[in-house]
Automatic annotation (TrEMBL):
It comes from the Bacteria. Gene3D superfamilies: alpha/beta hydrolase. Residues 16-231 form the Dienelactone hydrolase domain. GO terms for molecular function: hydrolase activity. This is Carboxymethylenebutenolidase.
Amino acid sequence: MTNTTTIPTLAGDGSFTAYRAVPAGTPKAAIVVIQEIFGVNAGIRRKCDTLAEAGYLAIAPDLFWRLEPGIELDPDVKPEFDRALELMGQFDQDKGIADIEATIRAARSELGDGAKVGAVGYCLGGRLAFMTAARTDIDASVGYYGVGIDGLLGEKHAIANPVLLHVPEEDHFVDKDAQAAMHAGLDDHPKVTIYDYAGEDHGFATEFGERRSDVSAKLADERTAAFFAEHLR
C-alpha cells in the first residue's frame, strides 16, 4: 500500500508531505529514503516500493517543500536538470537534516518502542545520509554517490551506528582527490564501509533513465539489502 502522509517540523513551524510505502505484513523496521536533487520523483517512489516489498516501512520526505512543494524532475531532460541544480543551490541542508529527523521520529512513533529506523539516500541524499549518521540517532545509513562527503569528515567522530557508502570511481561530481580523501578519512572508521565501483558514474543506481548501469546497480542494491538486514533487525 502506498499513500502520502504529512509530518510536522521539529520546530512546529510547519509541515511537509512524504511518500509512504507500507509492506503487506508487519514492518520489520522503517527506512527513510532521501531524495536526489530531482525531488520525490518516480525513481524515489520506486525505491520506497521496493523496500516495502522487502518488508520495510519506507518514507520519502519532500525535502524541497520550502522551495517548491511536490516538485518532480527528470534528470534526463536538460531544463529539468538545470532546475534541480538551482534548487540545490537554494536548499538549506541543516533544515533538511531537521526534516529527516522529524521523519525518523514519525517512523519510530508509528512502529512503536524499540523499532529501528535506517536511511538511504542518493546524490544529494547520499550526502544527507552521511550527515544524518553524524547528527541523528539513525540506526543505519546508506549513501549512494554522495557529493561533498570529503568536506564533512570533521563530523565522522559523531557517527555511532553503521554507515555504508557506494562510490562510483568515475563520478563527475566527486573527483579522484575527493574519493581519496574519503578513503583516507573513513577507511579506518569502525562504523563505515565503502564500496567502489570501477567505471561507474554518478547516478548509476537510479531506477529509471539514461544514468542507470544495471549490473552495478543490482550489486549495490544487494549490498544495501544485506546491510539493512544485518543492522535493522
